[in-house]
């Protein structure tokens, strides 16, 4: 009965126009250790926000959902267009399909901007040019007006980045590539910040297939707030200043 009470409170506060984080804070104050989990609050807040009225569990029919029907894909697309900030688990709860299915729909049908390189595929200039095009589309979708103001792109001096086809793509999309010191491969936030933390999170875990790996990666980054990414950029500023002091020398061990 306790979970029904919690859902009723979440529904009431959602209808008052409060966001999920505010609801979490207020419920932690009232319920203390008995407060429902953050994921549970965010899940039901999303459901009520998008029109759900019942606070009861859905009946289990025992029948698997046909995840990739056009109706399901259209439903996911409609919800995503209404609120692009929804997380994968919230979409899963709203639509009534598994996280894996949501991942497949986003990637295969709705153009998820995350790129997963196929096993055995070589990264060439042509391949990198397609990544730049995806980046342009993502910026156009999520940061309206940013393309017209100009985009500064930080990339190292890998041959594929300097290939003719990649440079042509940069010019076509209106990106400006920042000058990167030839002997400092340690100025990429993905290499010194994002990937090491991701590896720590995934270390020791076992996955049965590629989809489970993709889910774990998405869950890792979905759990990070804006400050996490801002901290990575702050470290980039520190490393860049250090690189200038060392006249472009290698600084990987610098914190």
In short:
Among the domains are: 48 residues; 46 residues; 62 residues, no CATH class. 60% of the residues lie in helices and 2% in strands.
Structure overview:
- This protein is mainly α.
- Among the domains are: 3-50; 66-111; 185-246, no CATH class.
- It is built from 13 helices and two strands, in the order ααααααααβααβααα.
- It has helices at residues 2-15, 20-31, 38-49, 70-82, 88-95, 99-108, 125-142, 146-149, 159-162, 164-173, 189-202, 210-222, 226-245; strands spanning 151-153, 175-177.
- A two-stranded parallel sheet has the order 1-2.
- The N and C termini lie far apart (50 Å).
- Mean pLDDT is 79; it is low at 61-67.
- Report helical residue fraction: 55-70%
The main sheet orders its strands as 1-2
Number of strands: 2
Shape: globular
What percentage of the residues does DSSP assign to strands (E)? under 5%
Low-confidence stretches: 61-67
Structural class: mainly alpha
- Kindly provide the radius of gyration, computed on alpha-carbon positions and rounded to a whole number of angstroms: 22 Å
Order of helices and strands: HHHHHHHHEHHEHHH
Largest sheet: number of strands, sense, barrel closure:
2 strands, parallel
Distance between the termini: 50 Å
- Supply the number of helical segments: 13
Mean pLDDT: 79
């Amino acid at each position: 009965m306790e979970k029904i009470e919690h859902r009723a409170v979440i529904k009431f506060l959602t209808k008052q126009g409060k966001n999920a984080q505010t609801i979490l804070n207020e419920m932690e104050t009232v319920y203390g250790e008995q407060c429902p989990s953050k994921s549970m609050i965010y899940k039901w807040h999303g459901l009520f926000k998008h029109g759900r009225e019942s606070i009861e569990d859905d009946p289990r029919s025992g029948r698997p959902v046909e995840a990739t029907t056009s109706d399901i894909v259209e439903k996911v697309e409609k919800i995503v267009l209404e609120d692009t900030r929804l997380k994968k688990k919230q979409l899963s709860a709203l639509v009534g399909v598994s996280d894996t299915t949501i991942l497949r729909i986003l990637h295969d049908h709705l153009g998820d901007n995350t790129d997963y390189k196929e096993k055995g595929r070589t990264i060439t200039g042509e391949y990198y040019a397609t990544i730049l095009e995806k980046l342009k589309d993502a910026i156009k979708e999520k940061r309206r007006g940013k393309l017209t103001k100009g985009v500064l792109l930080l990339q190292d001096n890998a041959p594929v980045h300097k290939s003719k086809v990649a440079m042509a793509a940069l010019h076509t999309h209106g990106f400006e590539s920042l000058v990167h010191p030839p002997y400092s491969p340690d100025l990429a936030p993905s290499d010194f910040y994002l990937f090491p933390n991701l590896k720590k999170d995934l270390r020791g875990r076992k996955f049965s297939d590629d989809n489970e790996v993709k889910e774990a990666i998405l869950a890792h980054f979905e759990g990070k707030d804006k400050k996490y990414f801002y901290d990575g950029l702050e470290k980039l500023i520190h490393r860049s200043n250090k690189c200038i002091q060392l006249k472009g020398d290698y600084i990987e061990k610098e914190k």
